[in-house]
Amino acid sequence: MTSVASSMPGKLPPGPRGLPVFGSLLELRQDTHLAIDRLARRYGDICLMRFGSVPTVIISEPELLQEAFGKTELADRWVSEIMDILSGQQDLVLAPYGEHWRRMQRFANRELLSARNLNTVRERHIESVVNNLVERMADLGDAGQLVSPPAMTAQSNSTLMFRALFGREEDSSEEFLQMRDALLGYIHWLFANATATNLADYIPWLRFLPNNGVKEAVRQAEVSSGVITALVDAARNRHGLDLSAPACLVEVMLAQEETGEISDTMTRRLCMDLMIAGTDTSAQTVNWLLLILANRPEIQARVHAELDAVVGRDALPTVDDRMRLPYTFACLAESMRYRTIGPLGLPHKASEDTEIGGYRIPAGAQVLGNVYSIHHDPRYWDSPHEFIPERFLPQADGSPSAAFTGIAYTPFGTGHRRCPGRRFAETTVWLHVTRILHRLRLETPDGGVLPEDEVFGLAISPRPYSLRVGRRW
Ligand code: HEM
Q: Measured in angstroms, how far is the CA atom of residue 163 from the centroid of ligand 1?
């Protein structure tokens, strides 16, 4: 059991006493980020609460957050029992701060997700998956059917990540396609099951009771490890493989294995990292913006007008258009603030006693960056609960808005564990939203306003919704 006793002198952050055994856990089980927002407003920019037996520090002020997550003492991950079973804490997302994590992180940032490799997979794989999605949406609209963006973007984002990783499917064997389906099935299971709160993570004696979730996790860990090994081996043995010109991300990794930069285990772990960290996050970001614009026809009309004026009807929007489409870009940036898909980021852990903002953070504490509260804090944002793209319009000299570059805007996290997939996400999300809006008009089914309340999960999602979709020309 983790205790808040510590050798370092100094005051612990203030916070609620909570209930015996449970601490603040029961209060936080529903709409966790909103409950934490309420507690943070009561107890201040840095506060301490107990999730069962786990001391949890919540940081709700951008400068403190930058300081905290820039410290190596707070760069470990707090990992649940089920995620531990699934990952063995060997992957980039969940590995503790240290040499193994650093090698993967350096490789992911400098090579794997570099602009060069991203361009290759965008041209070969990503654009065609997005174009296909737009056409399918348009066809459904033509047939008078409602379109469900959440279902369709879930599929397009996992397909495009799979293809970016493992290459084309068209020329693949039946066996390869079965492995693809098995991997996508595992990712689907993980999103649906492995991210829910498991009380045994916080109340250790519950671990002695039978737990079907844990049993299933052990089974899934075996299955998924077999599938990923088989997929990487299939890539390794692919006929005509030329590692001097990698055509997909697994080939980039295999090339680096040859130089000894990364190991075979790291390749497998990184494939899993990208499938898990890079699919639902991007899909939910697209889902939010489409919903928000369907609810606001006047803002959508301005996006359409900008796309028509800048891109026209004879071309498609590209990743290079971001500066030329400032209003569309501002809508995307504002939607990532207004509906922050990672409201508490991913949990960090204090590897040793340290100090933030004059308070003692005890070793073993879980540390959460309260990005939701920072993104809705009236100290940094006027009318924070309204959707106002104008705050992200560039300045008069063309430089990015102060809101975009300021430290109170942090959808991708900050410090050592900040998101290495930012460039990848910005590319895929941008292509999704601009190509959908370039071609289609989105309306709510009955002309009313659809709810924009948030469903808490690995990535915060809107409630499932459907839209009426029409071709614009
Ligand atoms: C809009 C989409 C995305 C958002 C908002 C997002 C946000 C985040 C956040 C908040 C974190 C945690 C930062 C922290 O721990 O302090 C994170 C971590 C991570 N993200 Fe993303 N992400 C997105 C897409 C992606 C994509 C597309 C990839 C892969 C291509 C990716 C890969 C990762 C990885 C590997 C980590 C773990 C880094 C580490 O622990 O060292 N993410 N992301």
A: 19
